């Protein structure tokens, strides 16, 4: 805790002071250029990875960068609410779903952990698990993990298209969807080619 407080002091005395004008402008409102849906894993920080300034990206972080399907009801829908705000209020022109290597949520999906909330949440991606296991054949658990991470990202992209106002924005060319995958050991960023289903280095 002391390290976090000291970090805040350093931020306020250095970065904040050097960029006071930017922060004064941001206090009036935001206009991010992209929504990034990424994992809450402490090793995967979108702001750092993209060298982004405050206000440049609208960030949603949850377990395994999952997007649930459009299902409005009286339950709690934090991710869907944030997506709605980014698309309908802020009108972001890009949505990026960013998966990553060694994802603990995907590991839970593959049987490592159930829990009160993680298990039910990860059931959104059960088809990804089944497809990855089938694709892997006799390959080992590392291959299954990587394939499942890829397929989970694809499910999130597909679920984004179930939101009617995202479908409409896509039809009007007001928004673009992107699937990116980050290998944290190599700091390599890959992009999904939706035509082929393959990931290629950016």
What does this 3D model show about the protein?
The chain has 2 domains: 29 residues, no CATH class; 171 residues, Carbonic anhydrase (Beta-carbonic Anhydrase, Chain A). Helix 4 links the parallel strand 1 and strand 2. The mean pLDDT is 95. The chain is built from 10 helices and 6 strands. By secondary structure, the chain is α/β, with parallel strands linked by helices. It starts with a helix and ends with a strand. Helices cover 46% and strands 18% of the residues. It has a 6-stranded mixed sheet with strand order 2-1-3-4-5-6, with helices on one face.
Short structural description:
With 202 residues, the chain is α/β, with parallel strands linked by helices.
Q: Classify the secondary structure makeup into a structural class.
A: alpha/beta
Q: Helical element count? A: 10
The CATH superfamily of the largest domain is identified as Carbonic anhydrase
CATH class of the largest domain: Alpha Beta
Tell me the Rg in angstroms: 18 Å
SSE pattern, N- to C-terminal = HHHEHEHEHHHHHEEE
Number of strands: 6
CATH architecture of the largest domain: 3-Layer(aba) Sandwich
- Content of β-strand: 15-25%
Q: End-to-end span in angstroms?
A: 37 Å
């Amino acid at each position: 805790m002391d390290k976090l407080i000291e970090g805040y002091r350093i931020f306020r005395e250095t970065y904040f002071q050097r960029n006071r004008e930017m922060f004064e402008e941001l206090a009036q409102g935001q206009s991010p250029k992209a929504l990034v849906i990424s994992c809450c894993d402490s090793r995967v920080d979108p702001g750092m990875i993209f060298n982004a300034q405050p206000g440049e990206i609208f960030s949603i972080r949850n377990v395994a960068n999952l997007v649930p399907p459009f299902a409005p009801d009286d339950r709690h829908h934090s991710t869907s609410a944030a997506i709605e705000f980014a698309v309908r209020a802020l009108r972001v022109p890009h949505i990026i779903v960013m998966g990553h290597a060694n994802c603990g949520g995907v590991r839970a999906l593959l049987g490592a952990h159930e829990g009160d909330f993680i298990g039910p949440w990860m059931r959104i991606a059960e088809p990804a698990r089944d497809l990855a296991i089938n694709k892997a054949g006799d390959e080992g658990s590392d291959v299954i993990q990587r394939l499942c991470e890829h397929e989970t990202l694809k499910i999130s992209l597909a679920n984004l298209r179930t939101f009617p106002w995202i479908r409409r924005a896509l039809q009007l060319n007001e928004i673009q969807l992107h699937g990116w995958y980050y290998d944290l050991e190599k700091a390599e960023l890959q992009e999904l080619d939706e035509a082929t289903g393959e990931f290629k280095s950016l």
